[in-house]
Amino acid sequence: MQYLLLIYRNEAELSKMTPADRQAMSAEYGTYTQAIVQSGHFKAGDGLQPTSTATTVRVRDGKTMTTDGPFAETREQLGGYYLVEAKDLDTAIGLAARIPGAREGSIEIRPVMIYNK
Length: 117
Fold this sequence. Notes:
Layout lengths: L1 E8 L1 H5 L3 H21 L2 E6 L7 E6 L2 E6 L8 E9 L3 H9 L8 E6 L6
Antiparallel strand pairs: 1-5, 1-6, 2-5, 3-4
């Protein structure tokens, strides 16, 4: 089964990090990514640009409306994701718990809906 591991973090705290701290965090993510690639769990994953680059789209009464930024104001913002293959939720939880961002932010685990082809 595939699971999407959504990485939430506080962007304001991230912007306060020193270049050395950012480099260390990046190295930690690189190590984690290589580990799940080698274990066969990795399907896809990337970090996201800050929420200031986001655009929210809504269609109401046939009209497309756009808003700069994310839809909701929250303390944590979606910062990246991993798409993994895991035999069950417990395995996905184990993978999510090892994501470096889990220590200061949160990781949301969502099963991927598979449509019949």
